[in-house]
Amino acid sequence: MEKEKIEKIVNKHRNEKSAILAILHEVQAEDNQLNAESLKYIALLLGVPYANVFGLATFYSAFSTEKRGKTLVRACDGISCHINGAEEVIEVLKSKLNIELGQTTWDEAFGLEKVRCLGLCSISPNVSFNDRTYSNLNKEKILGILQKVMGDSK
Amino acid sequence: MIQMTLNNKEIEAPENLTILEVARKHGIDIPTLCYHEALEPYGVCRLCIVEVGGSLRKGIRISCIQNVMNGLIVDTESERVKRNRQFLFELLLARSPDSKQLIDLAAKHGVFESRFYEGDSDDNCVRCGLCVRVCRDKIGAFALCFAHRGYDRTVTTDFESLSEYCIGCGTCAQICPTGAIRMKDEGGERIIYTKNSVVARFELETCDICGIPYASKKYLDFVKRNSDNAMAVSVARNLCPTCARRTGAINLVGQMTL
After folding, report:
1. Nearest to B69 by CA among B156, B151, B6, B8
2. What is the mean pLDDT of residues A109-138?
3. Mean of the pLDDT values across residues B85-112?
4. Which positions ≥6 away from B51 have C-beta within 8 Å?
5. Closest residue to B146, CB basis, from A53, A55, A60
6. What does the alpha-carbon distance between residue B257 and residue A76 come to, in Å, rounded to a whole number?
7. Does one domain contain both A94 and A49?
8. CB-based contact (8 Å) between A82 and chain B?
9. What global pTM score does this model have?
10. A144, B69, B113, B202: most buried by Cβ count inside 10 Å?
11. Which residues pair with A74 in a beta bridge?
12. A23 within some domain
């Protein structure tokens, strides 16, 4: 990401070290990635060692050091979702998006990830598209949602 | 001072000490991997477990973190402790079956193989964090960090490449309890490396007297920057430790005969 943009985000948080997670979140949202250059520049501006920033960026699953799709599809495969047929839903996602878990589509529109729990076990299985979560899914439902979301993103 | 019972013996111990420290003072051997006197306790290897009772609720505690207190009853070698410790050794061996130090320590406690063995691995690291902590807290170089999480957690440099912060002191290799992070000096070059990455590679400065390569420039600069004047002068002489000692001794003897 451009240095000016990063500076703007860091300045917004008054160059506060303690705001590092918020800063990383905003850079990730803007750029869909936290690459080495961005992280190094953030570290430099905040006066934190590279190692700390790198540790943070790799620890949290909300961050990615590689380019991630614009829409991140998080398919839950926790216990409840798994029992209620998450595997089927994930298969549909894989074949429709034509990618494996952890990959990004060629046009960088979608990324697919398996997560452990979205905290909605009672209405499982769940899949979230960025901030929007869909519940009580099955093969047919997820197909419809996918078509709608893919249509919107075009 | 407080009164406590250690392995069925009434003892007196100073407050503010951990069970581990008190036990070691009394010559009781408790195995540890992640503990080091110079660093704050971290409590991740779990090998130092002991059974407590009395003033604490009966159960297993890690002795490197638990402080001693009045009326505490500690058993470091009970059946329960032994069983649990052997289990822990099996878990550690599953991940690092190749580390000589770990194999020896496990054998000492009666564990020769692991039920959880999952194939050969040259990953000797047990994630004790000694190297990361010593680099951060004692040296102040911040060259190492833990990256990723859960099973993928690894010790690495920032961005998994040669670290800009590393000064090549070699403390991480020195402190590693399982030989996962190593250092070698070859052909005037120092290389610090782990299983999957090279931490640092440094040209070494040579000693003015014997010509042996002995330390990296960055390290010498670091010492100069962070020590008082007297120390900085001795660093500025460009002598390896052996020659520095020898010249020091010769100077001293010269002064004495005069």
Report:
1. B6
2. 90
3. 93
4. B58, B59, B60, B61, B74, B75, B76, B78, B80, B81
5. A55
6. 82
7. no
8. no
9. 0.82
10. B202
11. A113, A128
12. yes
- Cα–Cα dist B200/B191, whole Å: 6
Sign of dihedral through CA atoms B148, B154, B160, B165?
positive
Best residue of B158, B163, B199 to probe chain A, by most A CBs closer than 10 Å? B158
Instruction: Report d(CA B208, CA B238) in Å as an integer.
Output: 6
Asked if the Cβ–Cβ distance from B148 to A36 is below 8 Å, we say no
Q: Quote the CA–CA distance of B185 and B258 in Å, as a whole number.
A: 41
Name the residue among B5, B56, B45, B46 with its Cα closest to residue B28. B5
How many other C-beta atoms lie within 10 A of the C-beta of residue A31?
A: 16
Residue-range definition of the domain harbouring residue A94: 71-153
Q: Which of A51, A55, A60 sits opposite B143 (nearest CB)?
A: A51
CATH number at residue A137: 3.40.30.10
**Domain B2-77: which topology?**
Ubiquitin-like (UB roll) (3.10.20)
For residue B143, the chain A residue with the least C-alpha distance is A51
Q: Which of B47-56, B87-96, B114-123 has the lowest mean pLDDT?
A: B114-123
Same domain, A25 and A77: no
| A127 in a structural domain | yes
On whether residue A98 sits in a domain, the answer given is yes
Q: Look at residue A4 and give its three-state secondary structure.
A: helix
Smallest Cβ distance to B158: which of A50, A59, A60?
A: A50
Stretch A37-57: mean pLDDT: 93
Give the per-residue pLDDT at B37. Answer: 92
User: Is A66 contained in some domain?
Assistant: no
Domain spans of chain B, in order of start: 2-77, 130-257
Q: Chain A interface, mutation test: which of B134, B139, B144, B145, most A Cβ atoms within 10 Å?
A: B145
- B17-55: pLDDT as tens digits: 999 999 999 999 999 999 999 999 999 999 999 999 999
Q: Return the structure tokens found at B101.
A: 């130090």
Q: B201 pairs with which residues across the strands? A: B191
